[in-house]
Write a structure and sequence with these properties.
Elements (H helix, E strand, L loop, with lengths): L1 H15 L26 E5 L14 E6 L5 H8 L6 E5 L4 E6 L4 H10 L5 E5 L10
Parallel strand pairs: 1-4
Antiparallel strand pairs: 1-2, 2-5, 3-4
Organism: Ustilago trichophora
Protein name: Related to conserved hypothetical Ustilaginaceae-specific protein
Keywords: Signal
Length: 135
């Protein structure tokens, strides 16, 4: 009986406790490089969709991206993303982000990837992913 009374008394207190959102919660939409907080992520996906698209709702052009040359990070960021409004960024979780080359054509995105982005990270093309039922 005492336990039941205690639970009744504590219910409003427990119900009123709010858990603060994580600093690394998934962002609802992509933002500019200057506004982006996830610059230390080590898992990347690269997209080419219209500006403002929630990257969680579309498939990437490149995925399984990891830092291949970590010492090149700052230089690649400076050359490729700083002040470049062709890109936007979305935090997925504490470890992974999406990078959107806004409305880039396949050749444009391929050029960015081959000439700038691969100085820091290495990716797989999403289209090269085998489907499990393929032989």
């Amino acid at each position: 009986m005492k336990l039941a009374a205690l639970l009744v008394l504590l219910a409003p207190v427990v119900a009123g406790i709010e858990v603060p959102p994580s600093a690394f919660a998934c962002a609802e939409k992509p933002v500019s490089w200057e506004s982006f907080q996830g610059k230390d992520a080590y898992s990347w996906k690269i997209y080419s969709v219209p500006k403002g698209t929630d990257l969680r709702t579309t498939k990437p052009k490149y995925h399984v991206c990891r830092a291949a040359f970590p010492d090149q990070k700052d230089e690649m960021f400076q050359r490729t993303f700083v002040g470049n409004d062709q890109f936007e960024f979305q935090q997925f979780d504490t470890e992974s982000i999406g990078v959107n080359c806004i409305d880039c054509t396949e050749p444009m995105l391929g050029n960015y990837y081959e000439t700038k982005i691969t100085d820091y990270i290495s990716c797989e093309m999403y289209e090269d992913t085998r489907i499990e039922h393929d032989s």
